[in-house]
Amino acid sequence: MHLGVVRSCTLAGRSRATHHRQASPKPRMHGPWPKAQHPAELSDAERAGVLAMLNRQEYANLSPTQVYARELDEGRYWCSLRTMYRVLKDAGLGGERRRQATHPPRAIPELMATKPCDVWSCYAEVVVMPIPVSAAWVPAAPGAVLSA
Length: 148
Prior knowledge:
Layout: H1 5-12, H2 16-23, H3 44-54, H4 64-73, H5 81-90, E1 128-131, E2 136-139
Antiparallel strand pairs: 1-2
């Protein structure tokens, strides 16, 4: 005699959902998921060509927007503008493309008093004066009279 799934599960005290889940298990995939390939995604060779084009001497100081417009004017379409920015970012060149000026580090000015009324400043806490007794540097309090 043939029993159905419902009757068999009831007699065995087992849930039907558990029966069906264990009868035909789905393969579980653990670990990193494979990256989905978009049909319009550039190949590695095409990305290298776009990067070489963006790094050409005549385009070295231009933004990707300007390069994109110039290439379209010359009748060449490499990829979208956003893809150009992505290619540059992936290559670590996503910042400013022009040469940047470098300035030497500036020393922070220090106001040093060697005698009373030697240095005048609107910031009294900036002026320090050595005290010969303790050989320590003590900041002058606002309105304090310093004497050596």
